[in-house]
Every structure is written in C-alpha cells, then in structure tokens.
Amino acid sequence: MYRASRHDIIFTIGFICLLGLILFCGFQLQTIWLMVLYLQLWVFWKIYQDRRYLKQTVHLITSLRYAKCEYPLPITPNQIANKLIHEFNLIYAALDREKINANRAQAGIENQVWHRTQDLNRQLKQVSRTASVDDLSGLSNRKYLNLKSHELFDKAVESGTDLCMIMIDVDHFKETNDQWGHQAGDKVIAFIGELLRASTRSSDLCARFGGDEFILVLPDCSAKQGLSLADRIRRMFAREVELYIKDHCRQTICETDILPRLSIGLASLLRDHPLTIEQLKQMADSALYKAKGNGKNRIAVYG
Questions:
Q1: 239: how many CB neighbours lie within 10 A of its CB?
Q2: Where are the beta strands (DSSP E) in 50-162?
Q3: Which of 227, 239, 214, 221 is nearest to 299 (CA)?
Q4: Cβ contacts of residue 72 below 8 Å, gap of 6+?
Q5: Around Cβ 285, how many Cβ atoms within 10 Å?
Q6: Inter-residue contact 234 to 240 (CB < 8 Å)
Q7: What span, in angstroms and rounded, lies between the C-alpha atoms of 179 and 263?
Q8: Is the pTM of this model over 0.85?
Q9: What is the mean pLDDT, run by run of 10 residues, along the chain of 303 residues?
Q10: Which residues are catalytic?
Q11: 182-199 vs 223-249: helix crossing angle, rounded to 10
C-alpha cells in the first residue's frame, strides 16, 4: 500500500491552493504560467526523490553483499528464519542428492571391480590349470607331479603316516597305434585319465608321467590298500577298453587284434623305507619292470 510522504502532502496542498487561485482570478496568462512552473518543480522534486531512493537501494545491496547492513530490512525475523530454513533445506536436499549419486557411482565401481576380480580369478585358475594339467589325459602333468609329490612325501614323513606310489604302463600301446591309428592311442590315454580320476580320492595325486606311463601318489595309503586299488584299476581297464575303442574310434576289433592292457608296479613308504621321493619312485619303477618282465597285464610289489 502506497503511503504519501510529508513533501507529497505539502505539494498537494500547494497545488490545490494554486488551482483555487486560478479559478478565483480567472484563467489569466500569469496564473497559467505559475501553474506550469509549479508542476515542473513538483516533477523535478519527485525525480530527485526517486534518485535518492535508488542510491539508498544500491547502497543497501552493497552493504548486504559485504555483511554491513546499515538499513533495516523490510522483513520480519520470522520471515528471515523461514528463509534461512528454506535455504538450508535446499542445500541439504542438494547434498543428499549428491550423496545418493556418489553412492550409486561407488556401488557401480564396486560391482565392476567385483566382476573384474571374478574374471581375473577365473583366468588365473585357467592359466594355473593349463600349466599343471596334461591336455590329453586331463591328469596332472610331470612338472606338477614333481612339485606335489615332494610335498606329500615330506608331510607323510613328518606325520608318520604311510604313502603309496603306483606306477602304471600301458602294454601293447605301440600295437594299438599301428592297428587303429594314433587317434585310438589318444583315446586310450584319455580313457585311462577318466578311469584313474574315478577310482581315486580327491587327496590323491594322479599324473601322466610321460607317453603311456602314469603315476599315482596316495597319501595315508598302505601297500595292501594300494595293491587292492591297482588290481581294481587293471581289471576295469581290461574289461572296458575294448568297448571304449569301439564306441569312440568306430573301429571293428578282430580276434587276432592285440588289445592294450596295464602293467603296474607298487612301493610304499612304511614298507620299503625310502629316504626321498625319488627313491620311492625308483622302487615303484623297478616293480613295474618286474611286472612287465613276468608277462605283462599284472601287478608287482617292490622287494
């Protein structure tokens, strides 16, 4: 609501008096010019007032900018408090949105890191498996055998438990390749790998020693238990290998064909008392040659 200032009231009273003078004296030239002059003075005064108010407004804004308010603000304390609360709420809401966005970004990064870690672990396991597993048989390779067998031997010596080593050689393996091709020989190696994995425990070490030779390292296994396992493997191989060659190699087997068989040598830690894993391996190898020399397709124990 507009409120007239003291100067506006004075000018209004003067204007009314001048107008009454004009009406009383008539519209003479002098009174008309006096009326015009009065109106000009009033206009100039309003312009001067507006200019002064403008300067005060600029000064007020400058003072507020530098926290030096010299004029009373045209709002009540409650309005100031409400305004501050509103501004703080806006700031808090903005910070909350930034926090939510930051949490989402962090969750996204953590999710990417987790998936990348899983991929790296799978790749690492694949590389480790490739470095330690024989491709053809699926068993451990010779390099891994040398590392792991030393560990199992030392552990058995420290704990005073038995450790059995079984060495296996495929009889007539050359004849198998000559009769049905190298593909049949590869299938026989793969079948032996499946047979050994199915016949042993997860704690046992099954490895392809090279060519058609295989080694089993059986912790906490006596010579008697190893002999029973070796005989079961030999009999199962003799019973299943013919069907395996027919099914996987699409070959017809005649009565005159020579089928592969297994010769097995065996030695153990508590029975034969080797000082090193290499000596135990030599004992099992010696027993293997003994089995092959006695007619093949049989098992021999060291000593």
A1: 9
A2: none
A3: 227
A4: none
A5: 19
A6: no
A7: 20
A8: no
A9: 56 63 58 60 58 50 46 52 67 79 85 84 71 88 91 94 96 86 86 94 93 95 95 92 71 70 95 95 95 92 90
A10: 212
A11: 140
